[in-house]
Write a structure and sequence with these properties.
The complex is a heterodimer of chains A (192) and B (649). Chain A is mostly helical. Chain A has nine helices and two strands; from the N terminus they run H-H-H-H-H-H-H-H-E-E-H. Chain A has a two-stranded antiparallel sheet. In chain A, strand 1 and strand 2 (154-155) form a beta hairpin. Chain B starts with a helix and ends with a helix. Chain B has six domains: 1-42; 56-165; 176-276, no CATH class; 284-398, no CATH class; 409-504, no CATH class; 510-644. Chain B has helices at residues 2-49, 146-165, 176-187, 256-280, 379-398, 409-420, 491-504, 510-517, 599-606, 624-645; strands at 56-59, 67-73, 78-85, 94-101, 106-113, 200-203, 210-214, 219-225, 229-235, 240-244, 290-293, 301-307, 312-319, 328-335, 340-347, 434-435, 443-448, 454-461, 464-471, 476-480, 526-529, 537-545, 548-558, 564-571, 577-583. The longest helix of chain B has 48 residues, at 2-49. In chain B, the strands form five sheets. Chain B has a five-stranded antiparallel sheet with strand order 1-2-3-4-5, sandwiched between helices. Chain B has a five-stranded antiparallel sheet with strand order 6-7-8-9-10, with helices on both faces. Chain B is an alpha+beta fold and 649 residues long. The chains are: A mainly alpha (192), B alpha+beta (649). The interface between A and B is medium-sized, with 21 and 21 residues.
Chain lengths: 192, 649
């Protein structure tokens, strides 16, 4: 069931939330893991903090507060990654900073964390984070194998000599994403 | 309500302040680490070529354009130079990092990026530089990838030059053999390839340490020893030019080196002559022997031989006017009465085959070569071949050895059109005109260019045959078969041609004229000008301004696949291009994606050029035919400008 939910209820594939990092930062599997873990942590921590502050948050400041929180955690993630994982940081480039205004993170804070209790917010954030991670990591692995013939930097037999350059570029990201969307569509039909 | 709003605002501000505090605190921990990481990104490529290094300091030295950065290893192990050269085939940067040890030898080379179209051996070629000193004596260029390998070698030479010029390492000492082989293409253009490298075959000659013969057969180079090493170049008239190892010309009378060179040349000639005679003996059946003739000859003629019993002649030729610009070698045998009796194709480096039977079609032809065709699809190669055979006839007829045949008027006209009406040929000299039907007295045949700006008529009357050219602006010129302008005495012909041209030619459209006029100074009034030219210039406008008279030209030329290309050119009163526009600039990019140029940059580079330009500003890498189209359009616009202004500018 969980496996089907990762596909049929995946926020990126169903609502296209957070599609930007999923498309832009998945040229290699390593970059994908870096982005996935970063987004997951930012999502969870932002949701937890917003949930703890929810009683004092009114409609007027919910959105600016959500952005301040996600931007704060995104900046922390950037600084930590630049200091301790510089190679991954270089791969992610500007897309890590953009997580500050990631639709999935901000929407989750607004719609779930600001209204649910701590436990429920945490659980939902973790589930959403896992769903995002799954998609992003799958995309990264597929694009790196097809586009570069490697997986996490190690050469993959046959694919190493038969690379398709487009998968390392923006066009390839859309192709892989479209295929995964089609797969998600099948699972959603089954779930219904 | 107001209290709740104030509380929320305070909550928001407090959240901002808390996060700011966290980030400031975090920065004190991560800041130095981040800085160290950034520095290591800079140093990573340096340690990659010199892993044993302790550290690097930057060197601030004046250097060649190819040097991006120079570093000194802190414990004295040597230097690392980071280079970027765009002198390869694609003119994009080839990035290189080279480590040169303190003893002046290369210890490592990394090729960081390689945007070239052909691979010179990315894994293996840089490694051939390891262990080399500044002479790079044992480094070769890669055949077939000469531009890229030459760019690479040039960048490494710049790295050495930087260190040697600043006294950081000692210069390697070149062996005499290296000095000589590097000097030859510099002092002898006949042995210099397109990339500036030695292009000649090594031959053995008694009396010389080494000798090289050019592919054109026009010169020989000798490495001679006479109390030192010398280079002597001997051309095919026997003239000697001698150089010492410093490149000084030491060709003075009674110089023993000159005498040695002359002796070596005689020796070479006797061997060559014997070899030549052996090779051409079979060209004339029954030949007894041959003697070499010393005659004035066109460039493509290597040697001229007379059969000793009077059976005829043999001319040995080499032409590089084909598609690949490498030499096509051939030998042609002539009977004593001036007809071709045999043709042998000795080497054919072209990409397309014009057919094994093609040379045989020349047999029996006289000097008119009227029965010989150019092969469709192999035009450049067959035109080059025909040109070489034509030159062979020229050397015999101009020296009175055979009688020149009389060309039919049709052939004369066909050969005159490309010379007098370049509107009907492409920049490579291939005829592009279309035959048109003209029912008029005296008109034998007629053609016009695809742009319909120029028509050519073969007309005849009681005075003979004439070529009459007419353009869309009411100008006509009449030429006799000798190429003389006889318009004044053949007014009836010019009038007839003009009368017909109004129905077969078309003036420039108002849209085209507007595009030309737009390039002229704002506020000026442009008027069309008629001029008796028959080139790619299809229309001319002029505008009088306070600064002088500006001219605008509409030019139609031919690019890749002979697609029509249109240029709009404005020239100021000083003869400089003041405005330029084109349509369908890079057709070749449809076929060669790596050929690309930004139109705005291209136009900017050409703005300001004058008639004495070299044509270099029009160069587009990987798009030779488009480049030649631009050069033709601008050169013909300049020629028209000169005609209109009387050469005053």
């Amino acid at each position: 069931m969980m496996e089907k939910d990762i596909i049929s209820k995946n926020p990126v594939m169903v609502l296209f939330l957070g599609a930007c990092p999923a498309l832009a930062a998945t040229t290699t599997a390593t970059a994908s893991v870096g982005m996935a873990v970063s987004v997951c942590l930012i999502l969870v921590l932002s949701s937890v903090l917003m949930s703890l502050m929810r009683k004092g948050v009114g409609d007027a400041i919910r959105l600016p507060l959500a952005i301040v929180i996600s931007a704060g955690f995104a900046s922390i993630a950037q600084m930590v990654m630049a200091a301790y994982l510089p190679k991954v940081y270089a791969m992610l480039g500007v897309y890590l900073a953009i997580v500050a205004v990631n639709a999935m993170v901000v929407t989750h804070q607004q719609n779930t964390a600001s209204q649910e209790g701590f436990g429920a917010s945490l659980k939902q954030a973790v589930i959403t984070g896992i769903e995002f991670c799954a998609l992003v990591i799958v995309m990264g692995i597929v694009r790196e194998i097809l586009g570069n013939g490697t997986c996490f930097g190690a050469k993959v037999p046959f694919f190493a000599n038969h690379t398709i350059a487009v998968f390392g570029k923006a066009g390839g990201a859309f192709i892989v994403f479209a295929i995964l969307l089609a797969v998600a569509g099948c699972f959603r039909k089954e779930a219904k | 309500m107001a209290t709740k709003k104030a509380t929320q605002l305070i909550l928001l501000i407090a959240t901002v302040i808390v996060f700011a505090g966290i980030l400031v605190a975090l920065n004190t921990v991560t800041g130095p680490k981040i800085l160290a990481n950034q520095n290591s990104a800079v140093f990573e490529p340096l340690f990659a070529v010199m892993p044993e290094a302790k550290g690097f300091t930057a060197l601030d030295l004046a250097a060649a354009d190819t040097v991006k950065a120079a570093w000194k290893e802190t414990s004295g192990k040597g230097y690392v130079i980071q280079l970027a050269t765009n002198k390869g085939y694609t003119h994009e940067d080839i990035d290189i990092t080279v480590a040169i040890a303190a003893d002046g030898k290369i210890s490592a080379v990394n090729l960081e990026s390689y945007p070239e179209t052909k691979d010179f051996g990315k894994e293996t070629y840089p490694a051939t530089y390891i262990g080399q000193d500044s002479t790079l004596a044992n480094v070769q260029l890669v055949a077939g990838v000469t531009f890229s390998s030459k760019a690479f070698k040039g960048a490494i030479e710049d790295a050495f030059a930087l260190l040697i010029d600043n006294g950081l390492i000692g210069a390697g000492v070149k062996e005499a053999s290296q000095v000589i082989t590097e000097m030859i293409p510099v002092v002898n253009a006949d042995m210099c390839s397109e990339t500036g490298m030695l292009q000649a075959k090594e031959v053995e000659v008694k009396g010389a340490k080494k000798a090289w013969a050019s592919d054109s057969g026009k010169s020989v180079a000798f490495w001679l020893e006479n109390g030192g090493d010398f280079l002597a170049i001997v051309d095919n008239t026997g003239k000697v030019t001698a150089y010492d190892l410093d490149g000084n010309d030491v060709t003075f009378a009674k110089n023993p080196v000159v005498t040695l060179a002359e002796a070596a040349y005689d020796e070479y000639q006797s061997v060559l002559n014997a070899k030549d005679i052996e090779e051409i003996m079979s060209l004339i059946p029954g030949a007894v022997g041959f003697r070499k003739l010393a005659v004035e000859a066109p460039d493509t003629v290597k040697s001229v031989w007379a059969e000793t019993s009077g059976l005829g002649y043999v001319v040995r030729s080499a032409t590089n006017k084909g598609f690949t610009h490498e030499y096509i070698n051939l030998s042609v045998a002539f009977t004593a009465d001036g007809k071709i009796s045999n043709v042998v194709l000795e080497s054919y480096p072209e990409t397309r085959d014009f057919g094994a039977d093609y040379p045989a079609t020349y047999i029996g032809q006289d000097s008119t070569l009227s029965g010989v065709q150019i092969i469709a699809g192999v035009t450049y190669s067959s035109t080059a071949f025909k040109g070489a055979v034509n030159d062979a006839f020229t050397v015999l007829t101009s020296n009175g050895l055979v009688v020149e045949a009389v060309k039919e008027p049709s052939q004369v006209i066909d050969e005159m059109i490309p010379e007098k009406a370049t509107a009907l040929i492409n920049p490579q000299g291939i005829f592009q005109g279309e035959e048109i039907e003209v029912k008029a007295d005296g008109v034998v045949k007629a053609w016009r260019n695809p742009a319909k700006s120029v028509a050519a008529y073969w007309m005849n009357n009681a005075d003979g045959d004439f070529l009459v050219l007419a353009n869309a602006y009411g100008c006509a010129t009449v030429y006799d078969l000798k190429g003389n302008d006889v318009t004044g005495s053949q007014k009836a012909l010019s009038d007839a041609a003009l009368a017909n041209s109004t129905s077969v030619l078309a003036k420039a459209t108002s849209k085209e004229i507007a595009k030309v006029t737009k390039l002229l100074p704002a506020g000026s009034t442009a008027v069309e000008v008629a001029c008796d030219i028959y080139t790619s210039v299809a229309d001319i406008v002029k505008a009088e301004t306070a600064d002088g008279v500006y001219y605008g030209f509409l030019c139609h030329t031919y690019g890749f696949g002979n697609h029509e290309m249109t240029y709009y050119v404005a020239i100021d009163p000083n003869g400089k291009i003041s405005g330029l526009n084109t349509s369908t600039l890079i057709i070749e990019a449809e076929y060669y994606p790596q050929a690309s140029v930004k139109k705005a940059d291209y136009v900017a580079a050409l703005t300001g050029v004058t008639a004495d330009w070299t044509g270099e500003e029009a160069l587009i890498a990987n798009a030779t035919l488009t480049t030649q189209s631009t050069q033709t359009a601008l050169n013909e616009a300049f020629a028209a400008f000169e005609l209109l202004t009387g050469g005053a500018n």
